[in-house]
Design goal:
Spore Coat Polysaccharide Biosynthesis Protein SpsA, Chain A, 9 helices, alpha/beta, globular, nine-stranded mixed β-sheet, 274 residues, 2 domains
C-alpha cells in the first residue's frame, strides 16, 4: 500500500502502541510506512518499539510536544499521497486501510476520511457530536460531515499542504474539529466511510496526565470560540467559569476524574482569565 503512511503520536502505554502497530501489519501495511512520534514517554516505549518492531520508524522527542505538533512532525516525515493519523490506543480491523484509501480515491474532493470507531468491547463509540451532526443518527451510510474525530483520520496530503497541517496552538483536544473546519473553508470535504472499522481504547494515554488534559480541554474550547465565533468569546468564558465551579463543587462524588479536576482547577481558572 505505497500510497499510504501511518503517523502515530505516542505518549506512554507501550502495550497499546504495540497492539496498534500489530493491527496495521496484520492489515497488510509495510512496517516502514509506519512512523511513531514519541512525546518523551517514560516507559521505555522508544526502546521497546525498536526491539519488537525494528522496521517501524520513530521520532523521539525530548519533551511532550502535544498531539498536533507531533502529528505535523510525522506528516512532514512521510511522502505518501495519504496519511492516516492514528491515536496510539487504536486497533485497525482487517480491510480498513484498503477501504479508506479506495474511498478517498473515489472522492477527489475528500480532504479527510473517517470511519467507524468502536469501543474496546466492539460496540459503537458514543461520538462527541451534536444532535445536528449526521453521525449522531446514522453510522450505516457514507456521507459528508462537518468534521471528524482525530483518533483515526485519513488525510489527503494535497489538502494538508493547502491548509498548513494541524494547528499547533492546540496542544491536544479540538485540533481535529479545527482541522475539519479549515479543510471546509479551503474547499475540501470531510467524509465518513462506515466500511472502515477501528477500535479506540479511549483515554488510554490522557488518563496518565488527566489534570493537564482537562486544562487543555478548556483551553481548546476557548480557542475554537475565539477563532470561529469571536462575538461569543465573552459568553463562552462566563459559561465555562460557571461549569467549572459546578464541576469542582461536586468533584468529591466523581472519583479519580473529580480529583483530577480539582488538581487542574487553578490552571483552568487562569486560562479562563486570559
Amino acid at each position: 500500500m505505497q500510497d499510504l503512511a501511518v503517523v502515530i503520536p505516542h505518549y506512554n502505554r507501550f502495550e497499546f502502541l504495540a497492539r496498534c502497530v500489530s493491527s496495521l501489519l496484520a492489515d497488510g501495511l509495510d512496517p516502514e510506512a509506519i512512523l511513531v512520534v514519541d512525546n518523551a514517554s517514560a516507559d521505555d516505549s522508544v526502546e521497546l518499539l525498536g526491539q519488537r518492531f525494528p522496521a517501524v520508524r520513530c521520532i523521539a522527542n525530548p519533551d511532550n510536544r502535544g498531539f498536533a505538533r507531533a502529528a505535523n512532525q510525522g506528516i512532514l516525515g512521510t511522502r505518501s499521497r495519504y496519511v492516516l493519523l492514528l491515536n496510539n490506543d487504536t486497533e485497525v480491523l482487517p480491510g480498513t486501510l484498503k477501504a479508506l484509501v479506495e474511498f478517498a480515491d473515489a472522492h477527489r474532493d475528500a480532504g479527510a476520511v473517517g470511519c467507524r470507531l468502536l469501543q474496546s468491547d466492539g460496540k459503537p463509540h458514543r461520538l462527541p457530536a451534536s444532535i445536528f451532526s449526521p453521525l449522531a443518527w446514522d453510522q450505516e451510510h457514507p456521507r459528508r460531515v462537518p468534521w471528524l474525530v482525530g483518533a483515526a483520520l485519513l488525510l489527503r496530503r494535497e489538502a494538508l499542504e493547502a491548509i498548513g497541517g494541524l494547528d499547533e496552538t492546540f496542544f491536544f483536544y479540538y485540533e481535529d474539529l479545527d482541522l475539519g473546519l479549515r479543510l471546509r473553508r479551503a474547499g475540501w470535504r470531510n467524509y465518513f466511510n462506515p466500511e472502515g472499522r477501528i477500535i479506540h481504547h479511549e483515554k488510554a494515554s490522557t488518563a496518565l496526565v488527566r489534570p493537564m488534559a482537562l486544562a487543555n480541554l478548556y483551553r481548546g474550547r476557548l480557542l475554537l470560540v475565539r477563532r470561529y465565533h469571536p462575538w461569543a468569546y465573552g459568553l463562552a468564558r462566563l459559561w465555562l467559569r460557571l461549569t467549572l465551579a459546578l464541576s469542582v463543587a461536586r468533584a468529591r462524588t466523581r472519583g479519580a476524574e473529580g480529583r483530577a479536576l480539582v488538581q487542574a482547577a487553578g490552571e483552568i481558572r487562569a486560562i479562563l482569565a486570559e
